[in-house]
Design brief:
The protein is of the alpha/beta class. The chain has 15 helices and 14 strands. Bound molecules: zinc ion.
């Protein structure tokens, strides 16, 4: 039935073979001094164990066994909107996308711009339905609290796009304070919400989250942001669910994030440092973060406001040349509709759509010497490893 699986140590062992990777010498002293490298023998002190799996309070899975999400999933399976999928069947995966990004209470009170629900759903079905024909068979919708997550709507869409796996996320998106709902409640309340989304499902839909998400933006680790990051890390440790972090790449907050994750016992091999591809000016810093264990989210292809297509693509090619293809994932951070911008104001972003990686980025990478095996790493193997832990 359920088999406990030893977590792979290989990637981290390789990454920690040298306590002071050479690239550290190239970092500014202010950054280098803040980087905390994983001790080589920390494995026994973190993450999960059989006691946690069998602890009282675990959910009842389909087989009737008390346990957490890991117990209800097969050893190499990933939760999607329509149920568990074998990691080996995920195929090419876009690790940071959205279906809709909404300001929930504004939409509730001023619904005119959103318009007809059925038309919005049909539009999403049409856009997402194009993905399998372009080689993409899985997306991770990293829409969480603070971004208008509505899983019943995403489920309705997923049921009409059977060729595409949609992994959904739990977490909280804030650049500063925690949402007022959580403000005067103990931090454990937020953590328990995240764990429940992963182990029991979201808002009665039966859909379980397969990713945790938070944000560290320009302000860095404010007390509120650090509280969310710790809740996400604790839910990750308890459920073995991966983490993706929106970052303000130019702020170079990786070392500070690393420090918090280290103290919470997180497994860096399951953490994506999102929006790293915005920092086209500093491949050395990104290499340091990759060698520290993060996977770099090169995940805003099409958002030319921060970096052009050429710059983003050249950065990926350069990091591939440095041997870091196994530490990158590719995505767009796009959506079918976002209400954070006035209608039409993003029309200049002509390549900001779900097909840009397939249509433009991959040909660029091939033309610039990135071998097919490294493309597979970024689009297939790394996502499967991060999502499943296999
Ligand atoms: Zn995003």
């Amino acid at each position: 039935m359920v088999r406990l699986r030893a977590r792979s140590r290989a990637p981290r062992a390789r990454l920690t073979a040298s306590r002071t990777p050479p690239v550290l010498n190239r970092l500014p002293r202010s950054i280098a001094g803040r980087v905390s490298w994983w001790p080589a023998n920390e494995a026994g002190g973190q993450a999960w164990c059989h006691d946690q799996l069998s602890a009282p309070g675990g959910v009842r899975d389909d087989s009737g066994v008390e346990g957490t999400r890991a117990m209800s999933l097969g050893a190499h399976q990933v939760q999607t909107v329509l149920g568990p999928v074998d990691a080996g069947d995920l195929g090419r995966t876009l690790m940071h996308e959205h279906v809709f990004v909404l300001t929930a209470d504004v939409q509730q009170n001023y619904p005119e711009e959103w318009g007809d629900e059925d038309a919005r759903v049909a539009d999403a079905v049409r856009r997402l339905g194009e993905l399998p024909g372009h080689g993409i068979s899985t997306i991770v919708d990293v829409t969480v609290i603070g971004q208008g997550r509505d899983i019943s709507r995403v489920k309705r869409i997923a049921q009409q796009v059977p060729g595409l796996n949609i992994v959904v996320a739990t977490g909280c998106y804030t650049f500063d304070e925690v949402p007022l709902f959580f403000w005067r409640r103990p931090p454990s309340v937020m953590t328990e919400f995240f764990v429940r989304d992963i182990t029991e499902g979201i808002a009665g839909t039966g859909v379980k989250a397969g990713m945790l998400k938070c944000a560290v933006d320009e302000k860095g680790l404010t007390p509120g942001v650090e509280r969310v990051l710790r809740s996400v890390a604790q839910a990750h440790v308890r459920t073995n669910t991966p983490v993706t972090i929106h970052t303000h790449a130019a702020g170079r907050h990786g070392p500070a994030i690393l420090e918090v994750l280290r103290t919470e016992g997180a497994d860096l091999d399951r953490v994506v440092l999102g929006h790293s591809g915005d920092l086209v000016a500093d491949p050395d810093y990104l290499q340091a973060m990759a060698e520290a264990g993060f996977t770099l989210g090169m995940d805003r292809f099409g958002i030319d406001h921060f970096a052009t297509f050429e710059d983003r693509s050249a950065l990926v090619a350069e990091l591939c040349r440095r041997g870091l293809a196994d530490r990158m994932v590719l995505s767009h951070d796009t959506c079918c509709y976002i209400d954070w911008f006035a209608p039409g104001s993003l029309d200049d972003l002509r390549q900001w759509h779900y097909l840009h990686v397939s249509q433009d980025v991959l040909p660029y990478l091939r033309d610039h010497g990135v071998p097919e095996d490294q493309i597979d790493a970024m689009l297939v193997r790394n996502p499967a490893r991060i999502l499943s832990g296999a």
